[in-house]
């Protein structure tokens, strides 16, 4: 074995367990039952990628599948075709922020409209927050758009319009950019590979590499000379072919990657715990193909999104199924069950965990392997915290505008907190346990300023309840409506407010919850005005009282036989 291959093999074995930013030596950060000396038990080989040949085969299979099967997405097109590095990074950045906690199918339309309106950092920096909120409305997690614009303004005003070129600088300098987003931007936009270790005696510690881009095969050093990159190896070599610089690619870890890696290596510990997350980041960094880091990261995410899905994975179509230890475990278990069923002595050993006592990556004893789940035993997550329950009284204030069109009053929420800066119908939080009449009184007190006239509790028309679940709040809106006559003078000191038509309301920066509230009002208005010609009453709907039946309505037998009301 030559010096390059031997060094690469040693580096891969060491790099498989590194923590954040680890140079080839592993940095342990997992917890588990204490081993000798009080140290956590190290993970077993079952959970690691220790064979360089397997890693190389996995990379090749995954990238070949990605080249053939990847989805045609607008941000991927820009990442490949946009020649300007700042625009390319901006295009990837916007997509990654929008895709957080949001499905691709939902994001595509928002992304296209965003890039059409603000194709550059400079254009976004000049926009108002109101404009940003209006375009973001309905995408959820509204603080994402606000932070994205804040960061764009910082790039323009403080960084001369130049995007930071490393993952570390992106995290440090831009609000709202975390480890995952920084890794995605640098690997996809820049093809970044960074130096993570130097072999002593080959390069002076004072010699630091210029930004290393995987799109080239040789890099100039500030101290002079060059180093050659050998595809498939994590090392750069000097002119004599000696490995001297360890390259650490920039990996990414999102929900899709977590699922794929946990199944590939039977990681059954809580995948949201910091020690497991650190281990997954180390694994992702070690696996990245140094010549195509951006494509590899996208391929891993694409695999989790389209094949290695949470509940119904398509294992037969998986390009890396031969490397999946969760699948291997299922196959062994099936073989064992089959032999037992046939009354044969099992030649396949019992399916056990990795065999290392207190392994920090195996499932806990309280959550053993469930044969009915197969590969979906992985990953495991801690029980999700239940959202807190809240109630809010909301009133749809209506009036007829100057041209006779129906108008609604909307008010702006505070600039911080939940749904910051968005517009809504006048609303007030309700204390738990209030009866309906008490809720009305609370809402009436809140409406006095907006109505510009005394409001009687009896004048509020109850619409119904609208439920909307945020990530951490189960919100119930108790909805009322109130029609106002004549001109209304608003108290602008309370908070910004304006009257809008239905069309203007839908174009405003309003939340999905408020759109649900308006639909509830429109639905009741439609029911009260009667069904359209030719429509049928829904099964279970209550008919009108006797004597007030609309012409042409079929009577029940009891109504037909009932004596007519006296005149």
Description:
With 567 residues, the protein is of the alpha+beta class. Helices cover 38% and strands 13% of the residues. It has helices at residues 3-15, 52-69, 74-81, 85-98, 104-117, 121-126, 129-136, 143-158, 167-173, 179-190, 255-264, 274-287, 293-306, 325-341, 436-451, 502-507, 512-528, 557-561, and strands spanning 193-198, 218-220, 226-229, 235-237, 243-249, 388-400, 406-412, 423-424, 427-430, 461-469, 473-483, 497-501. The strands form 2 sheets. Strands 6, 7, 8, 9, 10, 11 and 12 form a 7-stranded mixed beta sheet that branches. A hairpin with a 3-residue loop joins strand 10 (461-469) and strand 11. The chain is globular, with a radius of gyration of 31 Å. Mean pLDDT is 78; it is low at 1-38, 195-225, 347-352 and 537-561.
Summarize the topology.
Blueprint: H1 3-15, H2 52-69, H3 74-81, H4 85-98, H5 104-117, H6 121-126, H7 129-136, H8 143-158, H9 167-173, H10 179-190, E1 193-198, E2 218-220, E3 226-229, E4 235-237, E5 243-249, H11 255-264, H12 274-287, H13 293-306, H14 325-341, E6 388-400, E7 406-412, E8 423-424, E9 427-430, H15 436-451, E10 461-469, E11 473-483, E12 497-501, H16 502-507, H17 512-528, H18 557-561
Parallel strand pairs: 6-11
Antiparallel strand pairs: 1-5, 2-3, 3-4, 4-5, 6-7, 6-9, 7-8, 7-12, 10-11
Helix pairs in contact: 2-13, 3-4, 4-5, 4-10, 9-10, 10-13, 11-12, 11-13
What's the helix-strand series?
HHHHHHHHHHEEEEEHHHHEEEEHEEEHHH
**Average pLDDT taken over every residue:** 78
Helix content: 25-40%
User: Compute the gyration radius: what is it?
Assistant: 31 Å
The 3D shape can be described as globular
**Roughly how many Å apart are the termini?**
109 Å
Summarize the biggest pleated sheet: 7 strands, mixed
Poorly predicted runs of 5 or more residues: 1-38, 195-225, 347-352, 537-561
Kindly name the structural category.
alpha+beta
Give me the number of helical elements: 18
Hey, roughly how much beta strand do the residues contain? Answer: 5-15%
